[in-house]
Specification:
- With 248 residues, this protein is of the alpha+beta class.
- The protein folds into 2 domains: 77 residues, OB fold (Dihydrolipoamide Acetyltransferase, E2P), CATH 2.40.50; 164 residues, Recombination protein O, C-terminal domain (de novo design (two linked rop proteins), Up-down Bundle), CATH 1.20.1440.
- It contains 7 helices and 8 strands.
- The protein has a 5-stranded mixed barrel. A 3-stranded antiparallel β-sheet has the order 7-6-8, with helices on one face.
- The chain is elongated.
- The chain starts with a strand and ends with a helix.
Length: 248
């Protein structure tokens, strides 16, 4: 049975001289990997090769068993040419795709993640966009959605409240899923030391999630992005290739 959904292309690869394998995040069906037969031909159902970051209407036939489904038609409806003209914006966008691809399972619908990615890519194209802040908010919301990021106001070991950007003894533990105060961090072999900028940035993101209008300066955004990318990589069990390019 054919399926139709809005979709964003997460990755592509060559299958043959004329065909591609394309991975999409669909709004209705989650991640799907499809064989795009003849996609490299100019007169194909896609109008030529499918590009990573392309967004549009996808028609496909799901795989009957484990393996590839079949792409029937893909029509790009959202163009973001500005992303490809600015390396910083492009790197941030590619890192977002990598995160989504790594954190979501196959054929597991996450409408909220699709909308989050769509909106973040739109924000990256805005001339006034603060790229670091957009990426930090995206990472925060994605990790929260998939259940990998809990409260970051108290020590996960003792429950002591942690506040203030001036604290020098706070760490983040990916294994324990939260902050460790100075009295507790010594017992943990896996930890990431947090700077004052990182603590302030995490507090700002928590406030933004609660509906408070906040700003995230570049220094704070960079510090937060490093922490969240570290956490994501630790949970996935491998390094994220685009992290070093996307995070200053």
């Amino acid at each position: 049975m054919r399926r139709r959904s809005a979709a964003i292309c997460l990755r592509t690869g060559d299958y043959s001289e004329t065909s591609q394998v394309a991975g999409f995040l669909t709004r209705d069906d989650g991640k799907v990997d499809l064989l795009a037969k003849g996609a490299k031909r100019a007169k194909s159902a896609t109008g030529g090769p499918i590009d990573v970051l392309a967004e549009g209407e996808l028609v496909y036939i799901p795989a009957s068993r484990e393996g590839l489904g079949t792409l029937v038609e893909f029509a790009e409806t959202v163009a973001r040419p500005g992303l490809r003209r600015d390396s910083r914006r492009l790197n941030a966008a590619m890192f977002m795709l990598e995160l989504v691809g790594a954190l979501l399972g196959e054929a597991d619908p996450h409408v909220e993640v699709f909308d989050l990615l769509h909106n973040a890519l739109d924000r990256l194209t805005a001339p006034q966009a603060q790229v670091g802040a957009v990426l930090a908010y995206f990472q925060w919301r994605l990790l929260r959605h998939v259940g990998l990021l809990g409260e970051l106001a108290r020590c996960v070991a003792c429950g002591r409240r942690i506040a203030g950007a001036g604290r020098k003894d706070v760490h983040f533990s990916s294994i324990q899923g939260g902050l460790l105060c100075g009295a507790c961090e010594g017992a943990s072999t896996e930890k990431f030391r947090l700077s004052g900028a990182a603590l302030a940035g995490l507090a700002a993101l928590a406030a933004a999630e609660a509906g408070v209008k906040v700003t995230l300066p570049d220094k704070q955004a960079t510090a937060v992005n490093r922490v969240l990318a570290y956490h994501a990589a630790h949970q996935i069990g491998r390094a994220l290739k685009m992290a070093r390019h996307a995070i200053d």
